[in-house]
Amino acid sequence: KSANPQWREQFDFHYFSDRKDMLDIEVWRKDNKKHEELLGTCHVDITALPTKQTNCLELPLEKRPGSLLMLVAVAPCAGVSISDLCVCPLGDPNERQQISQRYCIKNSFRDIKDIGFLQVKVLKAVDLMAADFSGKSDPFCVLELGNDMLQTHTVYKNLNPEWNKVFTFPIKDIHDVLEVTVFDEDGDKPPDFLGKVAIPLLSV
Q: Contact 184/173 with Cβ under 8 angstroms?
């Protein structure tokens, strides 16, 4: 019941500078559980924003009255990466040696918050459920660790997709659980759930 809502929510996204993604924002109103109406959209070109500072943006909604006030900060994020199998970060012997030195016992207390990182190689899925009428699915895989989330690309029309991607996460809490979920991409609709596995870090 407000024309001037205040949310005061913060969202963190992993943005990789080699991509030219726009940040797309939609504002919706909800009458009840069944009825929703789109009030407007706006877009932010991340590449045009200055880095290492908080940018205050007032964004007019396209083709609708009203505007959205938000703070956007683009900052370097150490330890998070997506790469192909052939160029995975731990594949280089020199890098492995540097990491071993960084986390050796004598350096344990140099940075209490830097407790390590997790590297996950997502190779493939086998015998997935068919989510489309064609008897196929358009699967992609989402990895979540704490407040970090990364995902693979979509492999279309395939029940045995191969992604062959390497994901690297900084570990903030050794008691976190790695959650790996497979979804079926469904166009503009929410993706369909195809399966999930949870791996406690302490079991690795």
A: no
**DSSP secondary structure letters along 12-52:** -----TT---EEEEEEEEESSSS-EEEEEEEEEEGGGSPSS
> Is residue 145 a contact partner of residue 204, using CB atoms and an 8 Å limit?
no
Our count of domains for the chain comes to: 2
Write down the pTM of the prediction.
0.62
Domain range enclosing 169: 81-88+116-203
Q: Over the chain, what is the mean pLDDT?
A: 86
Q: What is the pLDDT of residues 131-154, one digit of tens each?
A: 888 889 999 999 999 878 899 999
Residue pointed to by tokens 């690297």: 168
Question: Using CA atoms, how far apart are residues 152 and 142, in angstroms rounded to an integer?
Answer: 7
Continuous H helices in the chain:
93-102
